[in-house]
Amino acid sequence: MVSIVLVSKSLTLANGIKELVNQTVDRQVKIAIATNNQTPLDLTNEVSPETILTAIKKCYSKQGVLVLLDTYHSAQNAALAIANLEHAIAANVALSSAPIVEGTLAAANSIALGASLEEAEKAAHKTITIKKLQLGENLPNFNIHPKNTNYEPIRIITAPVWLYPYHHFVIPRKKISSHLLLEEQKRLVKAIERSKKDIDWLTEETYRKIGEQYTHIFSSHRFLLENAELQLTVCSMISKHHCNAEFALQQTFIDLIDTYAQMDDDNMRARESDLEDILSRLLRYLTSAPPPITPPPYPNAILVTKQLHPSTLIALDTHRIKGILLSHGNPLSNTTLLANALDIPIINEAGKQALSLTGGQNITLKKVQNIWLYQNTYISH
């Protein structure tokens, strides 16, 4: 019989799901829980690959193991765990993108009726469709079948590291005389107009490289630059506080980024990279800083940096970039969306250790169950 592993930061949640399955499924299904936390109140740490690996081994059967996750942050650690299994075992382990509660119930019911691993995963995945239909959401061309039900050693990429410089502007406040305030505001307007021209080029380049469906990313950048209220806010700050345009602009964007960071929607919080992208472009024009774009030093390179803005990725010679490793980054960012569209493997949230790599050093990226992993983060057997 297929077994189930629940990966959750909350032991209370995982135990609740397990109890719900036991109460509603006629035949007992083996469920193991992977959580780092011994108390219900400790929700600070992601579940480690070692813990997930232990849970998989604990309930493994030849019929297979279905792994369900409470958050997308758990996916990479789960893939790391699978990467450290023997191939014969890993071939019978599947990660599910289904919601953990409904997906577990659906999978457990199908397993109790004798379902295979693939059938159990399909049953779990269908719950996404069912909930959307119940809520009246349109589902054009919605694919209810998982892309990678079974483990397969898909792609391995080895290439030299290209340490791409990440520049964070630190803008000091400068006192501007009253008779120069208008000139300061004109500087801002000029920077905005120059940025609009850049964005028009980026929109065309995006269309050329990956098609019209991704041009909305930079259309939204232009929309923000054309926002009269934003421009008025910055100009008012210049006049009121007699400060330089760069400082007023940065403070305005800091407030805007903070507003997005407080939103409940993960996708909206992920727009932070777009706001920083727009801000960096404007500040480069206001400070006359050189553009960051440089050609890759190698014919094939893995770009390593702290964060990568969407516009930077599109402007680079992407044919020479074989992978992207970000110490920070966000899986829901537009940079990730563009990298996927360009078929460039991207790993977000790799940690500060990624920045300690040496330029020119060969590193390997490996794809496990549709998730790209950096080999030096593998756990030991």
From TrEMBL:
GO terms for molecular function: phosphoenolpyruvate-glycerone phosphotransferase activity. This is PTS EIIA type-4 domain-containing protein. One of its GO terms (cellular component) is membrane. The keyword Glycosyltransferase does not apply. Belongs to the PEP-utilizing enzyme family. GO terms for biological process: glycerol catabolic process; phosphoenolpyruvate-dependent sugar phosphotransferase system. Keywords: Transferase. InterPro entries: DhaM, PEP-util_enz_mobile_dom, Phosphohistidine_dom_sf, PTS_EIIA_man-typ, PTS_EIIA_man-typ_sf, PTS_EIN, PtsI_HPr-bd_sf. It comes from Proteus vulgaris. Residues 1-128 form the PTS EIIA type-4 domain. It holds the Pfam family EIIA-man.
